[in-house]
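Subject: for your reference before the review

Hello V.,

The reviewers asked for a structural picture of the protein, and I figured it would be easier to keep everything in one thread rather than splitting it across files. Below is the amino acid sequence we used in the manuscript, unchanged from the supplementary table.
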Amino acid sequence: MTDKKKILIAEDSTVLGDVIRFNLQRSGFDVTLARNGSIALQLLSTEKFDCLVTDFEMPGMNGEDLCDHLRNVLNNHDIHIVMCSAKGMELDREGLKARLRIEEILFKPFSIRDLTSLLQKLVPTAQQNPPQLALST
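And here is what came back from the structure prediction:
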């Protein structure tokens, strides 16, 4: 039985989006990648995801607008949200987290390992603790 949790990544950087997707898939997640906020919103309107990992600054619909629409128009209060941003100190980090129920905001560049660990805590999968191989002597 597989217990793959569905992660939606909204990231307009081709390289970063692919790196995140690759690493999360290797960690046992079912990952969908949207290259902008508008595509992510369409997917969120039609599919169920356990977590959204979104960039803050994207063309068209940015991450803040995407999260606001998700929470207040789609009324999805169950999905976990992690936001990534290159804005650093320009963002009202605590205000965004409180208003949009964002679990964490990571500032770029961030560690893919830290992101993966965070998601494993938020939406654990059955594959996170694979059985250890017995070594015979």
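For the response letter, the relevant points are probably these. The longest helix spans residues 14-26. Residues 43 and 88 are 28 Å apart (CA to CA).

Happy to draft the paragraph if you're swamped.

O.
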